[in-house]
Amino acid sequence: MTRRPEHPSAYRWPLPTDSPHRRLRDRVLRHTGVDLMPSDRVADRYGELLTTGDPVAERFVAEIYHGDLGPVAGRAMLERALDEGIEAVPDAPESMRALVADFDTLPDWADPELIEAGAAVWRRWGYALGGVGNAGTMDTYTEGSLAVPLSLSGGYAGERALHRYLETSRWWIEVSRPGAITRRGSRARAITMHVRVMHVSVRAGVRSHGEWDDERWGLPISQSEMMLTLLGGSVGPALGLYGLGIVTSKAEIEASLHFNRYLGYLLGVRVDDIYPSTIADGLRLLYLFDASRSHDSGPVGAELVESFVPGFAPRGDAGLRDRLRAHFHLHLQSGYARLFMLPWNRRRYRVPVGWFGVGLLMAQLPIRILAEIGRRLVPGVDERLQQSSVRRWERWHEWQSERPAEFDVSAGLRR
Predict the structure, then answer these.
(1) Which of 2, 284, 311, 373 is the Cys-Cys partner for 38 at CB 3.0 to 4.6 Å?
(2) How many helices (H) and strands (E) does the chain have?
(3) What is the pLDDT of residues 262-320, one digit of tens each?
(4) Residues 244, 128: contact at Cβ < 8 Å?
(5) pLDDT for the residue 1
(6) How far is Cα 99 from Cα 12, in angstroms, rounded to an integer?
(7) Which residues, 6+ apart, have CB-to-CB distance to 284 below 8 Å?
(8) What is the dihedral angle through the alpha carbons of 233, 234, 238, 240, rounded to the nearest 10 degrees?
(9) Got the DSSP string for 368-396?
């Protein structure tokens, strides 16, 4: 396969025959019969999607948020359309009508029952979803295409790292509530739209910044990179959490893939031709990302990785009880990073050792195994476990948050 000209120069594919990833693929194939290598069609399309964005939302943001109306009035108009329907906004511009129509259309492939089953998986995972997701996300900061937009926008960098994670956690909690993501007018859908618009606004700002290189990286927050976050909410944590006693069945993992696909659809992700429907296909895409890394984020990536876990440290004015609680979560996040960042990537950065956090996570193993057995054998246990998991997640979020989630489109780049 030859690389097409439109592929970013940092996209390193196909693999050399003597590369470590090629040897890993050959060993896995020999011992398990599973081929991690994606087809040429999938790999080529993945490269193309590194240069593709969200035209429907981009038109809306350019006309409304970055136009005469401005972000404050534009957001108010959009929120009314989401709450009451586009008919309640008779003066809505055509770009807004197109965006709301796109958002409100249930695609032919979407199965509401399967979407709800996937949301239930997130409710079971709860706080652990964030822990594994954080480690996996930090592991991707070797890549300039992912690290530079987050650094420029201030997301997950410096003192804002924890707050941006709390915003993301608020979204996770809301979209996983029973029936919320398919119910028009729900808070879950409103936040999802604001995230979509924020992505577009950040994309526009980063692309016009001098630190961004189109030829090298393609498009900021591209379709391919957004798809990776969907795998980070499905196949990735599902397999990682086995080691912590949270056993997600094949059917549940596939439901989480479907749920994430629908979340992606609402966020403007249009990768239907390569989006995985099986665990093996999801692993192939994760392998493709890892094998085609450029390791070109430099100090920008280091700042993101090294800012995150320390953000959980207790505040200087915290009382004894809050300090102990903060240290507990600081150690938990260190433990997740120790377990789920790839060791050779982790060694690139100064991150807490994390072994005490690993011990805390392992101490919960017997309880989690008993819970997994109980939910499969006793009617009603699964639902109660989901409710308990979400309550603990929300209590942590309310305690940790200093201010409500903003998803602010109007904020400029930090440098």
Answers:
(1) 284
(2) 21, 0
(3) 999 999 999 999 999 999 999 999 999 999 999 999 999 999 999 999 999 998 889 99
(4) yes
(5) 40
(6) 34
(7) 35, 36, 37, 38, 42, 276
(8) -50
(9) HHHHHHHHHHSTTHHHHHHHHHHHHHHHH
pTM above 0.70, yes or no: yes
Determine the residue type at 242.
Y
pLDDT in tens, 252-275: 999 999 999 999 999 999 999 999
- Residue 56 CB neighbour total at 10 angstroms: 18
Helix, strand, coil tally for the chain in percent (to 5): 65, 0, 35
Taking the CA atoms of residue 270, residue 275, residue 277 and residue 283 in that order, the dihedral angle to the nearest 10 degrees is: -150
Q: Which two tokens stand for residue 373?
A: 């057995």
Q: Which position has the token pair 């992505």?
A: 199
CA 154 – CA 350 distance, rounded (Å):
20
| Cβ atoms of 334 and 309 closer than 8 Å | yes
Question: Tokens representing 239?
Answer: 């397999």
Using CA atoms, how far residue 364 sits from 226, 246, 371, in Å, is 32, 10, 11
Each residue's pLDDT tens digit, 154-170: 767 666 788 889 999 99
